[in-house]
Write a structure and sequence with these properties.
about 140 residues; alpha+beta; Alpha-Beta Plaits; 7 helices; about 40% helix; binds adenosine-3',5'-cyclic-monophosphate
């Protein structure tokens, strides 16, 4: 079984889409193991998005992700990382396939409703940034 981190980002929070997005993932076979609402500070945002440091959109991305509270979740399934990436669709909502979360809830390449881990290794590191071991349930 594999785990992945999902973030419901500020644009989706402002539009009241968090519940619908979590419901879609649960409805497509992803098991919810952990759930938390938080307001990321700059230090956490820069650690989470460290791989993008130096890119032209980095500063705007940090400002955006700390602009409202967000929801963080851990989902589990066989092949959860790829499964969730498929359900979310392309990073740019205008290029995301019909019926994907980003096509239905995203606004533009930055305000794209959700984040999901891009590999099982990244997932382990990202999950540790947001959850303590005893906050991730097994049932
Ligand atoms: P996410 O999946 O959270 O991972 C990195 C984020 O950076 C991405 O979603 C977008 O919100 C943002 N991003 C990626 N590429 C660009 C880009 N070219 N311009 C602006 N923001 C981007």
């Amino acid at each position: 079984m594999e785990k992945s981190l999902v973030l419901i980002k500020p644009d989706a929070m402002l539009r009241g889409s968090a519940g619908a997005i979590i419901g879609r993932l649960q409805g497509q076979g992803l098991k919810l193991l952990a759930l938390r609402m938080l307001h990321m500070d700059k230090a956490l945002a820069e650690r989470h998005y460290a791989i993008h440091a130096g890119k032209p959109f980095f500063e705007d991305l940090i400002d955006y992700i700390i602009s409202t509270p967000i929801v963080a979740a851990v989902f589990e399934a066989e092949g959860a990382v790829e499964k969730i990436r498929g359900i979310m669709g392309a990073t740019d909502p205008s290029k995301a396939a019909a019926g994907t979360i980003r096509a239905d809830f995203g606004q533009d390449i930055q305000q794209n409703a959700t984040h999901a881990s891009d590999s099982p290794e990244t997932a382990e590191k990202e999950i540790e940034l947001f959850f303590k071991g005893d906050e991730i349930f097994s049932y």
